[in-house]
């Protein structure tokens, strides 16, 4: 099975059907699909190599499967971040099996300990970087499509995840409040976060809403399908649009790179890391630290500038 292939839930093993039912009220669609994809692949491996089903997994099964993935990673067939996500998915599923009293708790903790030993298994290697100021300038100089420009602007101003672009509705733009704000729903982990809006951002949003109104689209989504404005933007069409932006501008840009850039720009302008974490919707500040990857010299400069009035 190729990643991105639609999974026929009726053909899933019964245990994965149950797990899917468990995930439906708790996780976004894309997260569920990715986890099912990983678990179907793991289930197939266990049946081929071990002659057992996924609910019968043991530490040695997980260990051998991850070893195979590691070899593929070393040959350049998959990325380190993929191994990390597979390891996490198997761990979450094993934890659910333990809660359902299908997997022995001792066996679960053995599996968990082994997964933590994987190089990068807990955190993983993340080589995504923020846009340079030159790249950012190049994008806006070469783009002429208004939807593409608005997508880039939204990522740089609010750090949208890809699904957040797709799920943003006009009612989420609370522009008439005394303190205008942007409500972002249905993001990762189904958390809602609110981002305060500056006057210039309010003006830009009003311009965009006027543009949408002139299109007379039959939906209330903020972003629309570039090929058919009468349909809202989807994860697939947004991916195609970012690929098109890359071809036009020559800058490898995608939603999470814009999100990284948003975090780094906030840091560069003196916003503290806890506020950045709150704006990004991170549950742990450690995740935000990985986003920033600020060089040591920049940390020193920031300290000297910020604390010069404190010490003598």
Description:
This protein has 312 residues and is mainly alpha-helical. The protein folds into 2 domains: 108 residues, DNA polymerase, domain 1; 175 residues, Intergrase catalytic core (hpI Integrase, Chain A), CATH 1.10.443.10. 59% of the residues lie in helices and 3% in strands. The chain contains 14 helices and 3 strands. A 3-stranded antiparallel β-sheet has the order 1-2-3. A hairpin with an 8-residue loop joins β2 and β3. The longest helix is centred in the N-terminal third of the chain and has 22 residues. It is globular. About 3% of the residues have low confidence.
Quick take:
The protein is built from 14 helices and 3 strands. The protein has 312 residues and is mainly alpha-helical. The protein folds into 2 domains: 108 residues, DNA polymerase, domain 1, CATH 1.10.150; 175 residues, Intergrase catalytic core (hpI Integrase, Chain A, Orthogonal Bundle).
Instruction: Give me the Rg, rounded.
Output: 22 Å
* Major sheet characteristics: 3 strands, antiparallel
Flag low-confidence runs: 120-127
By DSSP, the count of extended strands is 3
Helix content: 55-70%
Enter the CATH topology name of the largest domain.
hpI Integrase, Chain A
Structural class: mainly alpha
Domain unit count: 2
For the residues shown, what is the average pLDDT?
A: 84
CATH class of the largest domain: Mainly Alpha
Which architecture of the largest domain per CATH? Orthogonal Bundle
At the fourth level of CATH, the homologous superfamily of the largest domain is Intergrase catalytic core
Q: Strand arrangement, largest sheet?
A: 1-2-3
Estimate the strand proportion: under 5%
Number of contiguous helices: 14
Write down the overall geometry.
globular
Series of H and E elements: HHHHHHHHEEEHHHHHH
Give the terminus-to-terminus CA distance: 64 Å
